[in-house]
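Q: How would the structure tokens look for this protein?
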Amino acid sequence: MNLRHLLLLCSALWLAGCATTTPPDSSASATTASSAPRVPQGPLTPLSSKNARSGKVASLAAPADLWERIRRGFAMPDLEQDLVQNHEQWYSSRPDYIQRMTERSSKYLFHVVEELERRNMPTELALLPYIESAFNPQAVSSAKAAGMWQFMPATGTYFDLKQNAFRDDRRDVLASTRAALDYLQKLYGMFGDWHLALAAYNWGEGSVGRAIKRNQAQGLGTSYTELNMPAETRNYVPKLQAVKNIIARPEAFSAELPLIENHPYFQAVDLNRDIDVALAAKLAGVREEDFRALNPSLHKPVILAAGTPQILLPWDNANVFRRNLDAYDKGQFASWTVWVLPRTMSTADAAQRVGMSEYDLRNVNNIPPRMLIKSGSALMVPRTSAMDADVSGQVADTASIAFAPEVVTRRSTVKARKGDTIISLARRYSVSSSDVVSWNDLRANAALRAGQQLVVYLPVRMGAAAASAPSSGGGKAVAQSSRSSKSAPAKAAPRNTGKTTVAQKGGTPSKRKR
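A: Here is the predicted structure in token form.
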């Protein structure tokens, strides 16, 4: 009896289990199938010793620090030259310089290594900014190359690094690293050799290509060490090799490398409104100096979100910034905005229009002295109720400032020549005929006598106006072109006689009275 009851209970439980079991999900089955191990078909073949040596075995332990991670990724052939030893000696004899340089790099090096590994590029290239700029994103060379990767303006533009009145992406950590690695990959694709690619990065791809062709024409080798190149490029790869050797074996050079953790130093944080640099640093809980070190492309005291939609903050400060930004209720986020000039005007006029002192307007916009600001220029000005909107994307991305030399007019007395008309005389002195008529109180069709004295006002640069005037007995009226912002040599106007005086800056010469 008990056995029968036990069998009935087991049967009931089995039926209940069948009733509640759901059919397998097709997507789950697909996932299981895709993750299932793939078993090779057919007989197995032994692995040859050659194949075993060429394969890489991944380490199960993460690198202890970033230096070890860099060492594991070295993949470029070593360069052995006396020049390498010379540069090893130079660096190793300057431990303070190595310490400063490597400490500065600690903010940026993890990101560079990450990008190199993602692209499967040699990690030696992470050391290249030591050679280019000592990892200083604010470095500017005598040739106007800028940033830690030292991009020239034209090359930066080619690789989509924006350079305008408010930011220079050649200094931006993320953008410049992306562009530099794009460029290095392009060069390696051209030459198939990392040493030649580096030479081209320093000297230019065209220069390296021509040097290779010259050697080929002479039946010579075309490796890096065999090409004829400038001294700077000749030393470029040896410098990198020297730094690589010191990083690989610091104890051999009595070098002490600061600890750089194998962890991101910064995070990117999104911005959705314009905000002052000082306020952003305060909300993040970092010094403004440290904030600018991570965001070195910013030129001005305000961040324009339409052009810079992300900022970089130290890893632990990113969440602090987000919380404080959401809780901020103490007024406007940006105290600056951008004003586009409707017409060409002097700095004094522009400052009066926006309620600033001329000194402050010059200082915040880097306006040189004795210059007019051209129409369409974008100036950083205080934000007011009349200009309270965030700056548009078009202005943030394309803003520029253009200048023209301020001019004064110099009053000169000239003589008409035989056969002169008002039109021919005006053309000779590059002034309008209507001005000649106005300055001399003449009719438009007035005839001129040979030797007749006429007054003309010739434009000159501001600096030339301070020159001493010729004696009243005669002299030359000196004019200088003001139609271009570029300097031009002084040009002597035709000979004239009479007194020369300087008219007021920016004014229209008054009509001569009888």
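Residues 15-37, 462-514 have pLDDT under 50 and may be disordered.

DSSP finds 21 helices and 14 strands in the chain.

Upvote if useful.
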